[in-house]
Write a structure and sequence with these properties.
Helices cover about 45% and strands about 10% of the residues. It is of the alpha/beta class and about 325 residues long. Helix 4 runs parallel beside helix 9 (about 180-190), helix 7 packs across helix 10 (about 210-230) and helix 8 (about 160-170) crosses helix 9 (about 180-190).
Length: about 325
């Protein structure tokens, strides 16, 4: 038995102050609840039925921002990691390009490789773990020879990295070029920038790689991206799908340079979509750039689900 000390006093619950539930503020109202769709209902019905709560509400705000940016002729910049291409999402990106919803694309170096492989042979993504054991990972000839030559030739002609490869795919007889984001950017006249870190990509292992050309082309593309970022103020949108480090870092510097040059790049929408939370995209894309003005959103989900949802929502609501 526990003995009670002499000075111990029990709390008297009869003295508790209460108030009516009707007087209390509630964050979730009936109007925000999800709505049931009938069998065979349209996507738009499904989309309208999403709850106006947490990330579903954020998702709708991103869709609205993209549509508003298009109407105001403000940039919608689409930054993407290579995994987006590996997940089979290139056709959706290409359609958004053709519909003039995406106004600029930014890729990392790996994205170019997967994009070329799809254009060249209609398939991509090797088994890294298997190939690494023998030292054969990334040692296929065609991606390195094609991309490295394209960049060297393009830089000599005054082009950036992205446009160089897009032009080469257009001219190079790639059987599946219509599945290439770089080709379609080149064809549609959409700015496409490639941001390379030396040593990160398989084509850097090959003797055909010229670091000076890759660096020069990537620097030109950085300035190309700055030009798009400079026009984002008062209604533009920056979307980042799946780049955890390189593109968030590049975007932050592009934004800073644009502001340093006197462009009023404020009051825009920034959204990061990724499968897990990453520190760098959150601070460099979502929070710091929109501090004091604009809106930032971080939405977690697999690319192969979230990008089709975003694509269809934008198409239906446009």
């Amino acid at each position: 038995m526990i003995k009670r000390l002499k000075n111990d006093k029990m709390i008297d619950l009869n003295k508790v102050k209460t108030y009516s539930l009707k007087q209390r503020f509630s964050k979730v109202e009936k109007s925000a609840l999800a709505k049931v769709s009938a069998k065979g209902a349209s996507f738009r019905s499904f989309y309208k039925g999403l709850p106006e709560i947490l990330r579903a509400s954020d998702f709708k705000k991103v869709v609205d921002a993209v549509i508003a940016a298009r109407k105001k002729h403000k940039p919608v910049i689409f930054m993407m990691g290579a995994h987006v291409i590996k997940c089979g999402l290139s056709p959706l990106v290409i359609d958004l390009l053709k519909k003039k919803i995406i106004s600029a694309v930014a890729l990392n170096g790996a994205g170019v490789i997967h994009d070329f492989e799809l254009a060249y042979q209609g398939k991509t993504s090797e088994d890294v773990a298997f190939a690494l054991k023998s030292g054969s990972f990334g040692m296929s000839r065609e991606p390195a020879e094609f991309i490295n030559k394209a960049v060297t030739d393009g830089v000599q002609d005054g082009l950036g990295f992205g446009k160089s490869v897009g032009r080469a795919i257009a001219r190079g007889g790639c059987k599946y070029k219509r599945d290439s984001i770089l080709y379609n950017c080149y064809k549609e006249g959409i700015p496409v920038s490639v941001h390379v870190a030396i040593g990160t990509d398989i084509i850097h292992q090959h003797p055909s790689f010229e670091a000076s050309s890759a660096g020069e082309g990537s620097q030109r593309d950085f300035l190309l991206l700055v030009s798009s970022v400079a026009r984002m103020g008062n209604g533009g949108v920056i979307l980042n799908f799946g780049s955890a480090v390189i593109l968030p870092e590049v975007f932050l510097k592009a934004l800073n340079l644009a502001r340093n040059l006197g462009y009023k790049v404020h009051n825009f929408t920034a959204a990061n979509f990724d499968m897990i939370y990453h520190y760098r995209p959150n601070v460099n894309v979502v929070t710091r750039p929109t501090e004091g003005s604009g809106k930032g959103y971080y939405i977690i989900g697999h690319h192969e689900i979230m990008l089709p949802l975003l694509y269809q929502a934008v198409i239906e609501e446009s």
